[in-house]
Design a protein that fits this description.
Elements: E1 4-7, E2 17-22, E3 29-35, E4 49-56, E5 61-65, E6 71-75, E7 83-87, E8 98-103, E9 111-115, E10 129-131, H1 134-142, H2 147-155, E11 159-161, E12 169-172, H3 180-189, H4 208-213, E13 218-220, E14 224-229
Parallel strand pairs: 1-5, 2-14
Antiparallel strand pairs: 2-5, 3-4, 3-6, 6-7, 7-8, 8-13, 9-10, 9-14, 11-12
Length: 230
């Protein structure tokens, strides 16, 4: 049962819908909401950029109606976590597509985004963006590094933990100022299910890290998505 309805008030069945689910029994999850400047009047905020936060109480789900033609983003941890970009303006001669992606350039949180009913992508591949447990994903790759590389990463402050074959990470962080070796670890070694380097968005798709980032764009033939915070 949905706890609340947020977004536009004049929605109809079949309009774009983002379910925002909070699986934590104790923590309230807050998402920063942004809309593209060219969003039509039918979209939430009508393209006013930063919009009121979406708040989801413990163990609850919000039904967020972004409005017809909405392009924008939902970012966990009040804007300091994983950023999910959605595009509900996907009508084309080949049929409708909703586009979405996961961005950890600015921060990371234990959050995923995908079709509400488990649909696969149009190309048949898995459709879940983001990570349920960023620390666990990073730890799964930590032991593949030599101690010198581990120590270099710890020295950046973006990873916390211990070195060695029995070493483990206790916390991971990300922001726009992270060193290239941190970005490379999360993108290419740990293989976070998100883009961390901006890739060809800024014309830098020549490096291995940037090229890896370019594969993180999803599309599905549905207007309903679900963000799940853990």
């Amino acid at each position: 049962m949905a706890q609340d309805v947020q977004g536009v008030s004049n929605y109809s069945p079949g309009d774009p819908l983002v379910n925002i689910k909070n699986t934590s029994p104790t923590e309230t999850h807050v998402y920063k909401v942004e809309g593209n400047a060219d969003n039509p009047p039918s979209a939430y905020g009508a393209g006013s950029g930063s919009l009121p936060m979406a708040t989801v109480l413990p163990s609850q789900t919000v039904q967020f109606y972004p409005g017809t033609g909405f392009i924008g983003a939902f970012t966990g941890l009040s804007g300091a976590g994983t950023r999910f970009e959605v595009n509900f303006r996907g009508d084309s001669p080949g049929g409708y597509k909703t586009w979405y992606n996961s961005d950890m350039e600015f921060g990371m949180s234990d959050t995923t985004l995908g079709p509400a009913h488990g649909d696969k992508q149009i190309n048949g591949l898995d459709s879940l963006a983001g990570e349920q447990d960023c620390l666990a994903k990073a730890n799964s790759a930590w032991g593949t590094l030599d101690e010198a590389t581990q120590q270099q990463l710890l020295d950046t402050g973006y990873l916390e933990g211990s070195v060695g074959s029995n070493g483990a990470l206790t916390a991971v962080h990300m922001d726009k100022q992270a060193d290239e070796n941190v970005v490379n670890f999360f993108q290419n070694v740990a293989e976070m299910n998100s883009y961390i380097h901006p890739g060809s968005v800024v014309g830098k798709a020549t490096s291995r890290t940037a090229a890896a980032a370019d594969k993180f764009s999803w599309s599905v033939e549905t207007k309903e998505l679900t963000i799940t915070g853990y």
